[in-house]
Write a structure and sequence with these properties.
elongated; 7-stranded mixed sheet; single chain; 6-stranded antiparallel sheet; 814 residues; alpha+beta
Amino acid sequence: MRQSPATPDELARAILDGRPIDWANVESTADPTAQAIIRQLRLVAAVAGVHRDQAVRPRWGHLEILEPIGHGASGVVYRAWDSRLDREVALKIRAFDAATDGPPTSSVIQEGRLLARVRHPNVVTVHGAEVIGDEIGVWMELVRGRTLEALLRQGHVFDADEVAAIGLELCGAVAAVHAAGLLHRDIKAQNAMRADNGHIVLMDLGTGRDRGDVEASDLAGTPLYLAPEVLRGEPATVQSDLYSLGVLLYRLATRSYPVRGETVAAIRDAHEREQRVVLRSARPDLGPLAVVIDRAIHTNVDRRYASADALATDLRALTTPAAASPPRIALLTVLGIAAIGLGGWWIAGRAAAGRHAVDTAAGRRAVVVMPFKEVGAAGESSDLAAGVTVALQQELTRIGGLDVRSQGSSRQFAGTAPSVVEAGRLAGVDLAVVGTVQQTGSSLRVSPQLIQISTDTPIWSDTVTRQLRAPADLFAAIDEITRSIGNRVRLTMRAGRQEPLPDLPTWAQFVEALRLQSRRGPDNVRATEIFQSIVERQPDFAPAWAGLAGVYGERAFSYPSVGGFAIAPAEAFQRIAPAAAKAMVLDGSLPEAHAARGHAHALAGEWEQAEAAFRRALELDPGATTISSDFVITTLMPTARLNEALNVLHLALRRDPLSADAVRVLAYVQLSSGQYDATLENCQRALDLSLQLTYAQEFCMRARVLKGDVADAIAFFETRGEGGEGWLGYAYASAGRRADAEALLKKVEGVPNRQALIYAGLRDASRTMDAIEKMAGVNVIRAASWLTYPEFHFLRDHPLAAEFRLRHRLPPPR
């Protein structure tokens, strides 16, 4: 290998002699005190080279040299005329060194072959390559424009949209390079040009190498752009090219670099010490783009994007209207996840603003994820298999144009083992994902299949293996599977997760809290405790704050006499708004945070603000059936908007036909609408879906009383004991057992909600409204809701009821 001049004097003599100088090597090994002198000498060398070349180079082979247009350590670039092609070209010439380049003919032919493999609008087109004397020349398409580095140096400021758009074009270029079986190895702002027509073109494959050359570990490229593993001497990979591309985007956004240093050794040391400037701290205004770039330049190779196409998917989501929301967090675990219905909760990529349910016949596809099975497990499911199932179901919601059935649907098939075709038809989908998982030590193996329901045949399958070291490792496997499914159904993914991630035990606890919260009622106590413990340990974990606000909202809506809650409704009311606000500050894209704000507004009687908050939550996640249910219960029902409530629930069930919670709340609204047969049907359907649902049986029995079938209802409420006296008293009164009803009034003295029911059964309007007023003194939203109950319809046009609605800003019944 040619020895580069080492001292300033030697460099000066080499410049005068016209000898080539490896400036990158010189700068990386020089004493820091000599750096300024070396930079000046390099500038002198460039000027001298230009003048020398202008004076002595009229032709090179069949190419007529017109003028030099660039100069660097790897050679000189000229504007030239190709008489054979009858066009101007860019000609790059570099000296040939037999000691490093090998046989001249094979070397240049190999380089030409590498370059000629790539055909893409964003990659410069190579026309030919040749060796003449002791020089190698490659001539290519002449792109008129300025490099991105030149634009930076000229003061151009790149905003987030421009950076994302440039990144998207470069992803296409890099993907083409990789598809040709090559690695670029020198992606940087100097090698990417903005043509005069605005097109971005990737240049200079001079350091490119065949991807199959895994033994190569020579240090090539510009150190500030090199991935840390390459600086350590490991071979370049697809992920190291993506790291360089990420650094390029970082530079466009900040005019700087994530890791800085004057020499290769200093840069390597900065990587080892993790002395990095996170983009979100350098440019907090970039929003979701910062998350994407930070992932591209992650120090952990496995945490980076798996391909240029994967990076392009997230960038594309930021440059289209479908990406109105930031990338969502995807938190996954391999421990402690039960096969639960999360009700369309917040995991991974539900930033689908404006997405509406459309029949699959209108061009959309619909999919259900069947519970995965663990190979070698005692049963058909396990914590690990359930975790993969939940994770994949949530990640699939990132595919635009794909309607994904929530866990409220897919969990119905856990342990029941229906055929895939039967499950698909029950869920109303045309696709189903089935699969197995296997864990051996720290190695995870996931083998999914995509099944076409109409033909009961697999249309895609794969096996993905990952080493499990953190939640992100499982996410990487699920992300790869999701992208493959998206490609198979020819649909595009939106942006993915964002930091921070909780540790595995915290995530397992969080999932358990969600499971308890989804059941409503008495399980609220434990859910509240878990959410509270999580935010105390990790106060920057926004979803736990949103979950905490949600359980506070449920408690604040209840009446003090209702048991099974950790705190009193008044205290919950005081806590819900701060918890929701905290979640919003940490992550304003959380639908649950907006829903919690809706709860708080409704409890304060601020109905318009409540509706706006819930509708925003549903824009962010149209498939969140629990949010639809909460919207109905807290806002639409108290304001007697029953028809709107029915529409919201029917739409929710189109997206999630097996959601037990949505079916139960539908029965609740149908009951108040006088649709008693439909109430009975949906109560039973809800119980068939989940025997653990709170209140579903109560709705059934109330419908029977209102239909005149009182006997079974009385028997049911008599077994309820304390807490069931109000409904029992109403049933007694409806059956003509007035004395029994009045006797119960003595047992519920001081409990106005139960008194109101018994007085309503006795048709005592004055004392019923007096009890309702006392209820409102404790919980106005609960009292307002009760006025919509069919048991109180006799008060519909009563002056006392009209006065109550006016005082609490409630609309008249419709």
